[in-house]
């Protein structure tokens, strides 16, 4: 007799949603990968999806700080691999959204000997828990940590600022992603300053996008609220009154889940702001 607690075999695949496994990467450090992972993850969770964030940035672990979860991490992926705990014990639930969880790979550099296979197994196990989105916050650089972080991913989000050094590194990373079989990459341009673009002191988002030739997911303005929210451990998108950067992250999150019509359908009082955002960043109207 079949175990009533288990689904019949032919229904198992239907019960587990197709997870989207997205690595957030950049090449150059400090361009906003972790900020983007936290805010996009929170936004997607608020839209009702089950989201797991993986902090693959060993030693420089800070996704937990951005989410205000630093005191809740008892176990990391290293503990799972060493048999010290189960996966669900290392998946820390967010304070605000129970459908958002965080897994840190390791708390310190000394205890890091994760292989690509380990990463793939971990991500597969998370998928089988029914997560719709798994966002992997990539470590800086393009060495072993980077290769491990990208190996389970099927899609990538490449973060850059509108500076030539960051763009060059983003281009290099795009090539490495392709070489590793990840062809589905999108671009997030962060720390954009419309005032500087108008003065011709900064490349426009469109220039950056055209240089890289990667489809644009979104553009985030330079905004002091990003730093304030980092320090408080509260992602921007949680604020009751969204700031411009918060709106921009929400917008990017909606595009990520496939709501392309966001600008057009907008009938909220924010309409004016959204249109301005698009005009400023992209140089054209919706
Ligand atoms: P990475 O993970 O790529 O190293 P972080 O997300 O940690 O980058 O961001 C690096 C620093 O830049 C942080 O101090 C963060 O608060 C700041 N920052 C990121 N995005 C913005 C922004 N749009 N406006 C202002 N500061 C930002
Ligand atoms: Mg980071």
From TrEMBL:
Chain's role: ATPase required for the correct placement of the division site.
Molecular function as annotated in GO: ATP binding; ATP hydrolysis activity
One BP annotation, GO: negative regulation of cell division
A GO-annotated cellular component: cytosol
InterPro entries referenced in this protein's UniProt entry, alphabetically: CobQ/CobB/MinD/ParA_Nub-bd_dom, MinD, MinD_FleN, P-loop_NTPase, ParA/MinD_ATPase
Keyword Nucleotide-binding recorded: yes
Matching PANTHER family: SEPTUM SITE-DETERMINING PROTEIN MIND HOMOLOG, CHLOROPLASTIC (PTHR43384:SF6), SEPTUM SITE-DETERMINING PROTEIN MIND HOMOLOG, CHLOROPLASTIC-RELATED (PTHR43384)
Protein's recorded name: Putative septum site-determining protein MinD
Protein family (similarity comment): Belongs to the ParA family. MinD subfamily.
Organism field: Neocystis brevis
């Amino acid at each position: 007799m079949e175990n009533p607690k288990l689904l019949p075999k032919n229904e198992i695949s239907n019960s587990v949603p197709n997870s989207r496994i997205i690595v957030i990467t950049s090449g150059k450090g400090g361009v906003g990968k972790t900020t983007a992972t936290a805010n996009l993850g929170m936004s997607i969770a608020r839209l009702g999806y089950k989201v797991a964030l993986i902090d693959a940035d060993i030693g420089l672990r800070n996704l937990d700080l951005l989410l205000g979860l630093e005191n809740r991490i008892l176990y990391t992926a290293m503990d799972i691999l060493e048999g010290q705990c189960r996966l669900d014990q290392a998946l820390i639930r967010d304070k605000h959204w129970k459908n958002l969880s965080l897994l840190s790979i390791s708390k310190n550099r000394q205890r890091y000997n994760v292989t690509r296979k380990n990463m793939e197994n971990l991500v597969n196990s998370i998928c089988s828990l029914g997560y719709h989105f798994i966002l992997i916050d990539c470590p800086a650089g393009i060495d072993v940590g980077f290769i491990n972080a990208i190996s389970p991913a099927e899609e990538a989000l490449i973060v850059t600022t509108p500076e030539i050094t960051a763009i060059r590194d983003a281009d290099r990373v795009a090539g490495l992603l392709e070489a590793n079989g990840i062809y589905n990459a999108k671009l997030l341009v962060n720390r954009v300053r419309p005032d500087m673009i108008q003065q011709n002191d900064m490349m426009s988002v469109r220039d950056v996008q055209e240089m890289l030739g990667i489809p644009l997911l979104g553009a985030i303005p330079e905004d002091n609220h990003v730093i304030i929210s980092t320090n408080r451990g509260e992602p921007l998108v949680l604020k009751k009154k969204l700031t411009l950067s918060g709106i921009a992250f929400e917008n990017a999150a909606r595009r990520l889940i496939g709501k392309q019509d966001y600008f057009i359908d907008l009938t909220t009082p924010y309409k004016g702001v959204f249109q301005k955002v698009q005009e400023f960043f992209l140089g054209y109207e919706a």
